[in-house]
């Protein structure tokens, strides 16, 4: 449509800010942890469901039931918001902490993620980093993705849940995968809008989100119609590799606005959607580097050695500083020369005036004769 889905933007902003205004019970004992009980294999999902171990075993290659059953997805990937299945329970902050403390539960969570990746034609090739690749049957599974759009909603839910459970690095790889398949390889045309409106903005880290927005902009066609970030800042975007470490640390401190589930708070909690729109919402790309940052870059590269490109950049920056200093010296020198000339001119004018009053100056011979005559008179 050439326009951004601002309803999606508001929804994802609320998620990234950890659902501001959402009230939960502060008493852990009174809270029933339905999602945790399901992941501990104590209860089956509702309605008409299975225990999680049975689901992970018997549905591994059953693509038909994974496509047609709509009750399980909210139990496998719970969120802190209500979904279409009213028998599923919203996730709570206490549950999130309990999930992370249980190794058994988190192992099941990764297996559930791999189950859905397989359903979409994707393979998790590195559990530590979250790196992905196409599965052997990717063509068949991509066809299913292009045909049934409700899977786009499921993927958004999966991405959100990954963020809640502390798998932000999994998020980044999954979003990058879909951006590549939709914009670069153009194999998932019916997933493209969801990837740009929803998937991209589930990333809470501003730095990582900016990088993905820039990647999307680079491969979007036509580039002039890209509406998910400000073009002036996208043109000036610099990756983390070219930024100084103090600048990176300052950004990382502000990456996840809002209140976290562990009780800590970070800045920008009350940032409005309009403010995010002005800066390209999640793009918020930085265009300028201060003089202090330039000096820090130079000092870091000199101390570390740096590669050829960094040395060239540093030397060019130093040359620019020398040029500026030399220009300043020339201006100062020109000013001093003007002042010297003016002083000499005034002195010459005074001498000429004295000459007019006292007559021409005496030569050395005249002075000797005068002194001899004075000496004779004195004798």
Automatic annotation (TrEMBL):
<feature type="compositionally biased region" description="Basic and acidic residues">
    <location>
        <begin position="249"/>
        <end position="263"/>
    </location>
</feature>
<dbReference type="InterPro" id="IPR039574">
    <property type="entry name" value="OGFr"/>
</dbReference>
<dbReference type="GO" id="GO:0140625">
    <property type="term" value="F:opioid growth factor receptor activity"/>
</dbReference>
<feature type="region of interest" description="Disordered">
    <location>
        <begin position="241"/>
        <end position="379"/>
    </location>
</feature>
<dbReference type="GO" id="GO:0016020">
    <property type="term" value="C:membrane"/>
</dbReference>
<dbReference type="InterPro" id="IPR006757">
    <property type="entry name" value="OGF_rcpt"/>
</dbReference>
<feature type="domain" description="Opioid growth factor receptor (OGFr) conserved">
    <location>
        <begin position="29"/>
        <end position="234"/>
    </location>
</feature>
<comment type="similarity">
    <text>Belongs to the opioid growth factor receptor family.</text>
</comment>
<keyword id="KW-0675">Receptor</keyword>
<protein>
    <submittedName>
        <fullName>Opioid growth factor receptor</fullName>
    </submittedName>
</protein>
<dbReference type="Pfam" id="PF04664">
    <property type="entry name" value="OGFr_N"/>
</dbReference>
<feature type="compositionally biased region" description="Basic and acidic residues">
    <location>
        <begin position="289"/>
        <end position="307"/>
    </location>
</feature>
């Amino acid at each position: 449509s050439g326009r951004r889905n601002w309803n999606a933007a508001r929804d994802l902003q609320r998620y990234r800010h950890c659902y501001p205004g959402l009230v939960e019970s502060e008493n852990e004992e009174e809270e029933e942890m339905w999602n945790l009980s399901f992941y501990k294999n104590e209860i089956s999902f509702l309605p008409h469901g299975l225990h999680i171990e049975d689901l992970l075993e018997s549905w591994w290659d059953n693509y038909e039931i994974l496509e047609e059953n709509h009750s399980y997805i909210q139990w496998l990937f719970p969120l802190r918001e209500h979904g279409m299945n009213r028998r599923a329970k919203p996730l709570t902050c206490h549950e999130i902490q309990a999930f992370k403390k249980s190794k058994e539960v988190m192992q099941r969570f990764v297996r559930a993620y791999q189950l859905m990746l397989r359903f979409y034609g994707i393979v998790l090739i590195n559990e530590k980093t979250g790196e992905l690749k196409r599965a052997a049957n990717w063509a068949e599974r991509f066809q299913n993705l292009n045909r049934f759009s409700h899977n786009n909603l499921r993927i958004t839910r999966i991405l959100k849940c990954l963020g809640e459970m502390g798998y932000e690095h999994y998020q980044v790889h999954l979003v990058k995968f879909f951006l590549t398949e939709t914009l670069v390889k153009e194999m998932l045309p019916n997933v493209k809008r969801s990837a740009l409106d929803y998937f991209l903005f589930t990333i809470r880290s501003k730095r990582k989100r900016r990088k993905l927005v820039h990647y999307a902009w680079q491969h979007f066609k036509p580039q002039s119609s890209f509406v998910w970030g400000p073009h002036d800042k996208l043109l000036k975007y610099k990756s983390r590799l070219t930024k100084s470490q103090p600048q990176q640390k300052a950004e990382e401190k502000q990456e996840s606005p809002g209140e976290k589930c562990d009780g800590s708070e970070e800045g920008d909690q009350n940032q409005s959607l309009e403010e995010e729109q002005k800066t390209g919402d999640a793009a918020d790309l930085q265009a300028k580097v201060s003089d202090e940052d330039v000096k820090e870059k130079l000092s870091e590269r000199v101390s570390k050695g740096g590669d050829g490109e960094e040395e060239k950049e540093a030397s060019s920056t130093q040359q620019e500083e020398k040029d500026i200093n030399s220009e300043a010296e020339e201006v100062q020198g020109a000013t001093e020369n003007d002042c010297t000339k003016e002083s000499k001119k005034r002195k010459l004018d005074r001498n000429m005036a004295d000459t007019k009053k006292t007559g021409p100056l005496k030569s050395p011979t005249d002075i000797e004769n005068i002194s001899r005559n004075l000496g004779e008179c004195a004798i």
